[in-house]
Amino acid sequence: MTLAEKAYDALRHDIIRGELAPGRPLRLSDLSERYDMGFSPLREALNRLHAERLVTAESLRGFRVAPLSLDELHDAVNVRIKIECDALRASIELGDDNWAAGIVSALYALNLQVGRTGPDADIWTLEARHYAFHRALLAACNSPWTLEFFERLYAATERYRIPTLLAATQPSGRDVQAEHGALAQATLDRDAETATALLEAHYRKTASYLTNVFGANEPDGLAATG
Amino acid sequence: MTLAEKAYDALRHDIIRGELAPGRPLRLSDLSERYDMGFSPLREALNRLHAERLVTAESLRGFRVAPLSLDELHDAVNVRIKIECDALRASIELGDDNWAAGIVSALYALNLQVGRTGPDADIWTLEARHYAFHRALLAACNSPWTLEFFERLYAATERYRIPTLLAATQPSGRDVQAEHGALAQATLDRDAETATALLEAHYRKTASYLTNVFGANEPDGLAATG
DNA sequence: GCAATAATTATTTTCGAAAATCTTTGGAAT
DNA sequence: ATTCCAAAGATTTTCGAAAATAATTATTGC
User: Fold this and answer.
1) Helix (H, G, I), strand (E, B) or coil at A57
2) Which of A48, A154, A223, B193 is the most buried (most CB within 10 A)?
3) What is the DSSP secondary structure assignment for residue B220, as one 8-state letter?
4) Which residue from B226, B217, B225 is spatially nearest to B70, judged by alpha carbons?
5) Which H helix or E strand runs over A25?
6) Residue A131, class by beta-carbon neighbours within 10 Å (0-12 exposed, 13-18 middle, 19+ buried)?
7) What is the DSSP letter of B161?
8) Residue B50 to chain A, least CA–CA distance (Å)
9) What is the DSSP string of A79-131?
10) Residues A207-220: tens digit of each pLDDT
11) How far apart are CA A57 and CA A65, in angstroms?
12) How far apart are CA B149 and CA A174, in angstroms?
């Protein structure tokens, strides 16, 4: 693995997890020290991340962690719903046994992690399995473009979810596990109408929850403070 | 404008227009000579283009112009239809007079260029105005993510259309101008059902035409020969 | 001859310094 | 006090060479 690839992974990790706060300037000399490498691999990574909209760039004025905003969250969620519902319909139509088994397996692994408490309750494992479950639902859609856009939007919305997960303020009233179970069941039953309705409801609930959290905490658009 | 930005524009231009053939290796020393700059700005541009899937990259083995394939064309067209129809519905709902005027103006400019023959019949101007027209239809959708995906997919499919335009083998049976006119009219009438149906038909026609052209010319997947 | 290996060449990747550009600071003029 | 300009400093951008890796060619042993 080249240094540029390591830089990309590390920066992406740190941005999505919020260790590099939204809006924060990404100075090459700082990053060079932080990640222990020269400018070249860092600039390559930053350019990749800029193309993915995780960092902003201004000519001759360097890079910053892309800011968060409620507008962007709403947009990303709405587009996700459209794209993922289409992809889910296609998957339900085209998916084979292998696809179905992948969903069962991903859901099982996710639920194991949701159930864990104490030292085993690793939030990043949980997040990875959450991604894997949603990815498994769409795996049979046979559309590389759709899957790429799914990944982009997942990463974009993940940035809003992470701080919430870390704060662990998830309201008790909501049983996400049951939502995932019902979604998987409808999908495996090849009931596209129910499945897409559940998927949309799942995202709208999450979005409205996140909107409340962020709207309350940072009224002027989630702009970072440092 | 920095050298890296110039490199990006030039490479993107040359790739989309096919001056750099699909599959062709993009060696830094060659590019350095071709565009008269050092490695650094070229690598930045190549990384950006890689993120946009216009070039492929393999670790320690350099870059290539991304290959073309009928599968990718079909995928891109199908996803375009979904995304653009959604965006068109949103635009029709949200668009104001300014949006409508933009469509009228873009269509007018496009038709002027379609009508030109001889030395004024510049294919790149035509292409730019075709893009501007379709972009104008969606301009009011109020969704940056949707517009970004539109741009990505437009660029991806443009690569298939350009060789056809250059060959000027467009069959006489098809009146693209009339299609654009009807599409604009339905949109300005805020008739979302008709407009999206026309948009879908427009793309399916183009796609089926391109499929024939490419399928006949290069049966094993459009892989470049150099 | 042919496979395996060493040497050579070609290419990518990375570094460190130089050049270019932006930002801040300090001082002079009004 | 405020505005303007120049100097100093900080930062990005670019280059050219060195290092690392891949691909090719030559050589050896059988």
Assistant:
1) strand
2) A48
3) T
4) B217
5) strand A25-26
6) middle
7) H
8) 8
9) HHHHHHHHHHHHHHHH--HHHHHHHHHHHHHHHHHHH--GGG--HHHHHHHHH
10) 998 888 777 666 45
11) 9
12) 33
Report the alpha-carbon distance of residue A131 to residue A122 in Å, rounded: 15
- Of the candidates B84, B204, B103, the one whose C-alpha atom is nearest the C-alpha of residue B149 is B84
The residue type at A107: L
CATH number of A3-65: 1.10.10.10
Separation of B61 CA and C12 C1' (Å): 7
Cβ-proximal residues to A57 (8 Å cutoff; 6+ apart), any chain: A46, A47, A50, A63, A64
B2 contacts A60? CB cut-off 8 A? yes
Contact B209, B165 (CB under 8 A): no
The residue among B11, B48, B53 whose CA lies nearest residue B32 is: B11
In this structure, is the CB of residue A1 within 7 Å of any atom belonging to strand D? Answer: no
B124 CB contact with strand C at below 7 Å = no
Domain boundaries, chain B: 3-65, 70-217
* Alpha-carbon span A183 to A138, nearest angstrom: 12
Is A211 part of the contact surface with chain B (CB cutoff 8 Å)?
Answer: no
Helices B144-167 and B123-138: crossing angle in degrees, nearest 10, is 150
**What digits encode the pLDDT tens for the residues B177-221?**
899 999 999 999 999 999 999 999 999 998 998 888 777 666 554
**Identical fold at A3-65 and A70-217?**
no
Given CATH 1.25.40.10, say whether it is the number of domain A70-217. no
Q: Edge to edge, what strands does the sheet with B25-26 contain?
A: B25-26, B62-65, B55-58
Neighbours of A188 (CB within 10 A): 18
pLDDT digits (tens, 9 = 90+) for B65-107: 999 999 999 999 999 999 999 999 999 999 999 999 999 999 9
At residue B63, the 3 state secondary structure works out as strand
Nearest Cα of chain B lies from the Cα of A13 at a distance, in angstroms, of 17
* Parallel/antiparallel/unpaired status of strands A55-58 and A62-65: antiparallel
CA atoms of B187 and B137, how far apart (whole Å): 8
Q: Search chain A and give the residue with CA nearest B52.
A: A51
